[in-house]
């Protein structure tokens, strides 16, 4: 619980979270909770998780603290259960049944702490024919219909990194779920299990598109619709120097301003005439090829034409608007996105760099009153 001496780091100050270490969406979800002020203790395994980068650069572990527990050791499960007894939320990303076999499943945790919100992050979910199968982002989003929407119609679907499945359909839905369940737990005294599946969240992201599909306003194929690159005034175009500009001039007045600044005449009525979209696309592409990305950026500067330069990851922090807002921050020599969203009364920040495995055992044992975090031979003097 929050006390008068507890520093306020954000709206979740005073909320305690146990994260059972994994990769991908689970750590990102726990980072978001930590960014919002929660006291997140990451339980790392000896040797670290697979696919891990150097822990010193894994910024998804910022604003957290770490302890190392071997769940396969005789006292491992009890040490995690001791943490769970003092926590509000626990997050794990094992395949279904693994946490139970390790002795830290929902039943064992709720026996120690009935108010605990137990968040489960998987690709396929806790049940269903594929629940026990391995997978990664791309395989999870493929059956949902969302991957098939992305890309050119004459090429295979484009790969959206692991942003769409892992983080949008996975992490963000887990965070919404555990915070909603925390609200319920505080109102009723009863915790519950939150089953956050990437397939569910990713499918849910396309809710509006499904409505358009049912209404006949969306064709069930790539590159044929208003928002999937099929529309010539909603897409990307190459510039003279090999850069790209993004165009999203959907509304009539934005479209008119876009045509004027681009220098195209006689295409005002092509906006709603799908039969002229091919011709319009060719003209737009040809015009963008006549100048560099920076030159076009200057042309559209200060306009409502809804055109922006496509920047790389290293370029993004230097964009004037993002720099002015502090969208990116530097901490410990690493440039990284700042916490989001923003709060007027409970501001957030990057407080600490990536938690190094096991570095915070003594602090957590003291602050959470869990002396059992230390194996019997390592109790602090």
Residue stretches low in confidence (pLDDT < 50, at least 5 long) are 376-381
The spatial strand order of the largest sheet comes to 3-2-1-4-5-6
Tell me which oligomeric state these chains represent: single chain
Strand content: 5-15%
Alpha-carbon Rg, integer: 25 Å
SSE string, helices as H and strands as E:
EHEEHEHHEHHEHHEEHHHEHEEH
Q: What is the average of the pLDDT values?
A: 94
Helix share of residues?
A: 25-40%
Shape: elongated
Largest sheet: 6 strands, parallel
Number of strands: 11
The computed structural class is: alpha/beta
Please give the count of helices.
13
Distance between the termini: 27 Å
Structure in words:
The protein is an alpha/beta fold and 381 residues long. It has 13 helices and eleven strands. The strands form three sheets. A six-stranded parallel β-sheet has the order 3-2-1-4-5-6, sandwiched between helices. A three-stranded antiparallel β-sheet has the order 7-8-9, with helices on one face. Strands 10-11 form a two-stranded antiparallel sheet. Strand 1 (16-20), helix 1 (25-35) and strand 2 (39-44) form a beta-alpha-beta unit. Helix 1 (25-35) crosses helix 6 (163-188) and helix 2 packs across helix 4 (106-112). The longest helix is centred in the middle third of the chain and has 26 residues, at 163-188. The radius of gyration is 25 Å and the shape is elongated. It starts with 15 loop residues before the first strand and ends in a 14-residue tail after the last helix. Mean pLDDT is 94; it is low at 376-381.
